[in-house]
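I'd like us to work through together how a protein chain folds, taking it slowly. To get us started, please write out a protein record for me. Label the sequence line and the structure token line clearly, so we can match residues to local backbone shapes. Once you have written the record down, we can walk along the chain together.
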Amino acid sequence: MTDRTRHSRSADKRATESPSLNLTSMLDVCFLLLIFFMLTAAFAVGEGVLPAEMPAGPTPVANLTDPQPPLRIALRSLGGEDVSIQLVGSSNPPTDFNDLSRSLRAMQHRPDQPTGAYLPTDPIDIVPDRTVHWTHVLNAYNAAVRAGYVNVRFAAAH
């Protein structure tokens, strides 16, 4: 066999072989990216989860001889998106949820307001009627939390 014949056979072999890729490096990079994104992902709180926690430890009591009834926020539907807000025990009904938050804060016993009748740990009952939109119920809940109360609960209408 001549050198020319050997050379042409090896050239034919190279021409018929398909090129192959080394996938090891690419798979390593993919797994590193996967691990990176799994470790750095921040998961959001699911919609509909209320960030309410029960108080830990004993509940301070302002006056043991004269216990206060729980604060009650009554919500009544006026049709459509309109809602009536009534703070039971308050002479002035709140006009909106910001006013509700201010009224609840004014009723709270704090160092800067020692005449307030309710502690931040006293219960607040939100009592909506059956036709009130849940948006209004959550707005009432948020108003109570903004006012500094930590024991906000939902009650059924009587």
The radius of gyration is 34 Å. The first strand starts at residue 71 and ends at 77. The chain has a mean pLDDT of 78. The CA atoms of residues 6 and 129 lie 95 Å apart.
